[in-house]
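Lab notebook, page 48
Experiment: co-folding of the full assembly
Goal: obtain a model of how the components sit together before planning crosslinking
Operator: M.T.
Materials (sequences as entered):
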Amino acid sequence: MTAPLLEVTELYKRFPIPGSRAVVQAVNGVSFEIRPGETLGLVGESGSGKTTVGRCILGLLTPSNGSVRFQGRDVTLGKRRSELRGKIQLVFQEPSECLDPRQRIGNSVEEPLIALDVRRSERRARVLESIDMVGLDESMLRLYPAELSAGQQQRVGIARAMITRPQLVVLDEPTSALDPTARAEIIELLQKIQAELGTSYLFISHDLSTVRFVSHRVAVMYLGMIVEQGDAAEVFAQPVHPYSVGLLSAVLLPNPDIKYETVVSLKGEIPSPINLPAGCYLASRCPLVVDRCRAEMPPAEKLDGGHVVHCFRHREVQALDSTTDTFTRFQQEARRILGVVPAELAPESANAPSATRHETEGRQS
Amino acid sequence: MNALAGEANGPANSVRETSAVPLLAVRGLRVEFPAAMGPNKVVLQDISLSLLPGEIIGVVGESGAGKTTLARSLLGLPPVPSRVTAGEIVFRGSDLRKLKESELQRMRGKDLSMVVPNPRGELNPLLTIGRQIATIAQVHLSIGRKEAREKALDMLKAVQIPDPTRRFDAYPHELSGGMAQRVVIAMALVCSPGFVISDDATSGLDVTVQAQILDLMRTLAEKQRSAMLFITRDVGITAHFCDRVAVIYAGQIMEVAPRQAFFFAPSHPYTIMLLAAFSHSADLRRRWTVPDVRRRALPGGRGCSYVDRCPLAQGKCRTEDPPFVELTPGHFSRCHFPVVR
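Observation: model returned without errors.
Model output:
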């Protein structure tokens, strides 16, 4: 087993509220690992602390407690930060807002290298390499962000992150501001880069179906805790935490006959992270709640295959719902419905795609 | 060319046993933006749609396709400086385009209403939410203060806001995003409007809250027998929520079909590409995508607007406008070579 690239242990982050004694408990004891070349999907509702975890890893926030170790070294210690420069990078949600509107694309992409004191001659070559990797044309380097589409802007964001050759990239909702086609292109680009360079990703998103198909492992966050984590396909096919079940059953796949069927349904909304309940944080919304859930926090229970869950009643959850891999079934159905090519039309078509059409078939799971 | 023809056989009709008289019928709607030089830019053309009472129709498309322009034009508020230049919008027998602005003003909020995204921008931060809902009822239904208050309270209950009597006096900033969205929905539905437009109303919400809000809108639409036009970028929502789905591209309806036909027998190459983009299979998407699109202006504005991105395009697609053909009852596709199976 390879050593993890990133190890987060018992991470806590609290934000004091100015002028009050109250504290926002944003992250409450989060532990996970990311291995080289692996994608960990971090899912949860807004306010669950996903972005805060990402920022603690990047060193943009100092954790209140716990450790973040990158290649075995603790990165939360101030003096170690500079050694890590460029090794962990970030891609933002809003591509239009993360690029300086008055800088040409070339300058934006080059900037991280200036911070790393890379020589000018080398910078030029690296910019070209990076912009080519994300599938943009060299001529775009002279343009301004406003002249690009949202999808192209996000490619620039990725080029800028990849130019330092990072080992870990935190992708904070990289596709939620994009149209479906641009989203699919960006996802495919990220997967291509990972296949070529072996970069690890922390993929933060509330788009569960995208997470299902890009992540190797997935962690479900609720009120600053990872309530369940494990192999992505397994967690999505057989979630054992009531919150994961509730989240999955709310996913609307574009097929009217396919829905995650469950008897578990969550009521209400996520409580405030200022006054956290004593027991399980989900107790007020959970249909399976028992007295014990209100009194004490369920500890982490390790199941088979690295699957970890915080729930007293995970066996009942498992027994309630039958195992059905909704997402795989959806994808198979999509292939059946959309995989048609009218044979008599395809060859003479003026726009027919070239030989690349079947190139990647089979690689995609 | 007429989307109305096939609707008598639509699923909504058979399921709901309504009279076949549509509540709202849009025919040949055209919206143009004036251009400084040259001809006006057409942002919507040849839009024909009709809705039966209680029916929910989904409109999907990418940004810039004209979805929001459509929503606003139907209410007689096309985004400035665009204008509706042709077509009719018949609501309960009268053409909204022929009404005076003052008459239209009375209908908006009462008979026609719209739910927008970003609820916080919609609500007045200085007034309590209860008062904002009550005012709408008071103005449009000509009822007294007390009665309006009762109505607003009922509405808060209907949109499942916990502890409605206390929340009545809450200000918008005291509510979470999901709660604020419910309040906006309560405002849109308090006068039991016959026609409701939802313009990406759930896009900023979390999936669990979105599911609750969708259920709610559907239940209320059914109860009040309102027709709903549901605009979204997320095709997934329409699969579980709408009776019919229309795809809009470059200002035109490319395909409209009853839900099952739309998802199990999509025929327009653009629809198929859009669905493939949601399937997370790279090979499938690539099969329906033309690499390296360079947009070419069509000579004389004729031909299919999707031609440059279409893998099935042929010579005819560049020179002739595609027909809006009916493939199966209620299933229309604007394509020379629709995919039929």
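Interpretation: The longest helix of chain A spans residues 180-197.
Next step: discuss with group before ordering constructs.
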